[in-house]
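On clarity, I found the account of how folds are encoded harder to follow than it need be. Since the whole study asks how a given chain folds, the encoding of that fold should be made plain. For the editor and my fellow referees, an illustration may be useful. An entry of this sort, consisting of the sequence and the corresponding backbone structure tokens, reads as follows:

:::
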Amino acid sequence: MKRFLSLIFGLFLFALGIVFAIQAKIGYAPWEVFHVGLSITTGITIGTASIITGVVIGVLVIALGEKFGLGMICNMFLIGIFIDLIMWPNIIPTSGHFGIGVAMLLFGLALVSLGSYFYIKSAFGAGPRDSLMIAINRRTKLPVGVSRSLVELMATIAGWFLGGMVGVGTVIFVIMIGFFLQATFAVFKFDVKSVKHETFSETYQSIKAKLGNKKK
């Protein structure tokens, strides 16, 4: 339960950071360029666009033979739900000034990084977009960094054609996300390589075994 709460809290912080980056209005993060573009084109909410994209990618990576965990399933749905819930009451204002927009984007990056820490720490598996990066890496033998850049570049281009905002903020997000993640992990003395992620089957067996022990 402690790990599951860490997963949910991490996904909420991640969604909150994404909303700050969107409301900064100086250019969205690569995947948000696509989600917002899809939202503009179809009339659905940004959160719903995120959910649909996550489900489609999730089905694709599973079809490609990648293992999946509870983290992927929660990531598919909860980030989109949290985004819509946060944006619905308009409690985070839209920036009308470039300097304020940069500050909001950097704060959003910090929240995304903190959310990633709690999410990865829970060890319930990678999200659909990260799994797609891994699938491309396995099949093309391209470096992980190149695979990630390729995926995000495709999302950005597709989102731009759909009407998503590409700007200075997009560049800042791409350049700075690695620094923010590294700084966050350093603060918590967290070694991402030490995490052994559970598959959905392993999580199910673990819960089943614990429930069986309680009955005894």
Notes: The first helix runs from residue 2 to 23. Residues 2-215 form one domain. The chain has one domain: 2-215.
